[in-house]
């Protein structure tokens, strides 16, 4: 049985832990705050990339696998923990989108049920939408997951598992090395020895690698969101226009997102984003113009150059593994990414071809990158 330390309690760290525990490993998950309070809490939870046709196959493959897996994951978590992550297949409308032809070609190649629909369909599906949209792309089976609940369910499930140790509010984390071999992690003044360490620290993943003289090109990309209160069923589907989207939750809440900002690790919300997101809300769903949002927040996406995550062992550091850099798609890509990581660590046949995600050649020595 392997002893594994995972650094980072977001969706990637927690689902990596669950996969490894299910396979019989012993896992210590360390989180410097509380599990599931960073990007994995802040995200919208659309179980798809926003414009799936724009991405390389490396993203489509993980996204496809995960989309198929989400309903059973949610069901299993709900059974064990009584917390339902509410995976809801309410469909998504891309309104008056300029890339309709590319999107439809992509959908044909991928076998996706994505169709062009006219105004009559649009307003039948979402009567509360602003006037004037003439056509859209529509995919009926696209879902959203209520990610704060997903994180609560994952935390509760991990806490139930005897082979799992959850350490929250950890401080001063650094890697323990012995002649290049990773032997564990030091945190809170103690050494946690392990056969392998997984870095799943989201936007902060580069910090620990920098200590080894390695430059991981994962940068924080801030996203701000608004939350509105509504009646259940008022908004029946997700809608997207000009990069802004509205997502209905089962209890009637509506999320409106999101901004894309390069502001370092600053997670504060801004008046400018509030105004801009409110304008988008009013443009999409005019009734929201009369309402004050009930909440505004920001999260830091783990931005990688092309959005393709790093999943694999770090060259020259046996025992050190990465699962990070999921950028805008960490919630949708998490199930497949974490299954792949576990397959690789446990030397099982990988669920998808691991080549596009390998770390080799994608992480430089710090001196070289300057
Ligand atoms: C506004 C917004 C909207 C989004 N919408 C979507 C969407 O609709 N669909 C989608 O698929 N994705 C979406 N995303 C992206 C998605 O949320 C992220 O890609 C995903 O949550 C990343 O997960 P993670 O576990 O890598 O990072 P995180 O959730 O950030 O978790 C990393 C964890 O590591 C911890 N940590 C960091 N350093 C240390 C350390 N040294 N020691 C211990 N712990 C440490 C942090 O505290 C944190 O809890 C959105 C993101 C944002 C911000």
Concise account of the structure shown:
With about 375 residues, the protein is α/β, with parallel strands linked by helices. The protein has ten helices and 19 strands.
Structure, described:
Helix 1 (about 10-20) runs parallel beside helix 6, helix 3 (about 55-80) crosses helix 6 and helix 3 (about 55-80) packs across helix 9 (about 330-345). The chain folds into 3 domains: about 5-50 and about 150-215 and about 305-370, 3-Layer(bba) Sandwich (FAD/NAD(P)-binding domain); about 90-140, no CATH class; about 220-305, D-Amino Acid Oxidase, subunit A, domain 2 (D-Amino Acid Oxidase, Chain A, domain 2), CATH 3.30.9. The chain has helices at about 10-20, 40, 55-80, 100-110, 120-125, 145-160, 205-210, 270-285, 330-345, 365-370; strands at about 5, 25-30, 90-95, 115-120, 135-140, 165-170, 175-180, 180-185, 190-195, 195-200, 215, 220-230, 240, 245-250, 255, 295-305, 310-315, 320-325, 365. With about 375 residues, it is of the alpha/beta class. Flavin-adenine dinucleotide (FAD) binds next to helix 1, strand 2, helix 2, strand 12 and strand 16.
């Amino acid at each position: 049985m392997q002893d594994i330390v995972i650094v980072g309690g977001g969706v990637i760290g927690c689902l990596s832990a669950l996969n490894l525990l299910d396979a019989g490993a012993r896992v210590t998950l360390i989180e410097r705050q509380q599990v599931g309070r960073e990007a994995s809490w802040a995200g919208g939870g659309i179980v798809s990339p926003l414009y799936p046709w724009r991405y390389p196959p490396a993203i489509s493959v993980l996204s496809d696998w995960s989309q198929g897996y989400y309903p059973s994951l949610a069901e299993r978590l709900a059974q064990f923990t009584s917390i339902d992550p509410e995976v809801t297949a309410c469909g998504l409308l891309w309104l008056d989108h300029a890339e309709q032809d590319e999107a439809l070609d992509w959908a044909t190649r991928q076998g996706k049920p994505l169709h062009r629909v006219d105004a009559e369909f649009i307003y039948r599906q979402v009567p509360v939408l602003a006037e004037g949209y003439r056509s859209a792309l529509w995919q009926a089976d696209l879902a959203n997951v209520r990610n704060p609940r997903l994180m609560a369910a994952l935390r509760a499930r991990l806490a139930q598992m005897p082979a799992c140790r959850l350490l929250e509010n950890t401080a001063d984390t650094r890697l323990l090395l012995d002649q290049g071999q990773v032997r564990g992690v030091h945190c809170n003044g103690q050494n946690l020895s392990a056969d392998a360490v997984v870095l799943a620290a989201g936007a902060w993943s580069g910090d620990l690698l920098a200590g080894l003289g390695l430059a991981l090109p994962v940068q924080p990309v801030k996203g701000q969101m608004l939350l509105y209160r509504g009646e259940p069923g008022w908004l029946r589907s997700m809608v997207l226009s000009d990069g802004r989207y509205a997502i209905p939750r089962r209890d009637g809440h509506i999320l409106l997102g999101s901004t894309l900002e390069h502001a370092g690790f600053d997670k504060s919300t801004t008046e400018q984003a509030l105004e801009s997101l409110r304008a988008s809300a009013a443009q999409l769903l005019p009734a929201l113009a009369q309402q004050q949002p009930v909440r505004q927040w920001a999260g830091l996406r783990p931005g990688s150059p092309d959005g393709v995550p790093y999943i694999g062992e770090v060259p020259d550091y046996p025992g050190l593994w990465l699962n990070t850099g999921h950028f805008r798609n960490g919630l949708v890509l998490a199930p497949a990414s974490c299954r792949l990581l576990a397959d690789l660590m446990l030397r099982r046949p990988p669920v998808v071809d691991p080549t596009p995600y390998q770390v080799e050649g994608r992480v430089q020595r710090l001196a070289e990158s300057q």
